[in-house]
Target: Trigger factor
Amino acid sequence: MQFKEEKIKNEGQGKWIITLDGEEYQDFLKRAKNRLKINLEIPGFRKGKAPESEIKKYLTPNRVYNEAFRLAIQPAHEFAWAQDPKLRPLTTPEPKLAKVNDHEMVVEFIFDIQPEIKLGQYKGLTNLEKTPIEVTDDEIDQVLKGYQDRFAMEKTRENGETIKKGDEVIFDFKGFVDGKPFQGGEAKDYKLVIGSGQFIPGFEESMTGLSHGEHKIKVTFPENYSAELGGKETEFALNIKEIKERKLPEIDNELVKDLNLKGVKNLQELKTKITNDIKDQKNREEKNRFVNHVLDEIVKTSDIQIPASAVNQQIKDLKKEFEQEITRQGLDLKTYKKLTKMTDADIDREIEADAKSRLATFLVVNEIKKAEKFVPTEADINQKYADLAKQFGLEVENLKAAINPEQVKQELESEMLTNFLFNNNGR
Model:
């Protein structure tokens, strides 16, 4: 492959130009033909079983070129980044087939160029406070209870026996507000441990003492639950199908033996491990929280001119994300606006502000990386592969085949940036 880059005059855009020719390009054409042959459907012949004479009629040069282009996009994109280009994309580079024939293919990647910015103060920000990390006894007990649950012994209660705290119940339920069912208020064969606090206050308490069969209970949703249900009394129709008494093991050295955790031989060592694990998790969360605040402060004091085309593209992407998210929640836009009391204009303003914030943060991060020259060494990359292999229980070589070194390098750069901003700011 050959690489060139150039600015598109008066557009604030750039392009990377990748030329494929010689044996490398012929290999792409060969792979494209083979892939098309496998999936080619020709009347009168089974898929992939037509004779060569018939295949040639359907396998036109344009179809082969287009398939070769699809195959070449990712390798060409990775090759461009590997050339350490001077023109850096602000938006995702869009591939375009610029030229193609039997001897060569030219692929262009078009993108908005990262604008130059005047970076604000990014070290020595003392107006932000770091939160001290503490691990409470309650947090340790919650983890221990989770280990207890793993080895709980269950005994099915007979018909006529009633639900007690700690029992696991399998039941159907359907909720009604003002006599009408509401969205998300129905489930079948739901498993619930009474006393686990999964449901709204009063629900599990109302189930205590009930037996098998159909029942009705009334509970009131908390005021801050949602715009639709907050503070409303609700009736739930229940059909209790199965009740299981759960006997939990003691939290002692015997439980530790059953857990069979590496390097943990007794209860005290288990508590120490739990404490360290919680502390590590909290440290990661606090570091990310604090660094996000630092980045917000840096953005405020930096001079950043973001191209309108980049903002508009980011808005489109965020709108798509937003629509997918409300769909995942089982809502449509009309229902979402009713529940949140937001207008189309309100939603558009929020998305536009988020788009500008994301782009500004992206630019600030890249500028700090350049200023501080965060460059992971080969040893850093190999160690990261080793850590990931241990985490996922895979062989290092298999992981290297699955994860591109460039991805690992970018992850390490992000970690270096986070550590730098955390260590050089706050009090």
Remarks:
- The chain has three domains: 2-112, 152-247, 267-423.
- The CA atoms of residues 105 and 308 lie 32 Å apart.
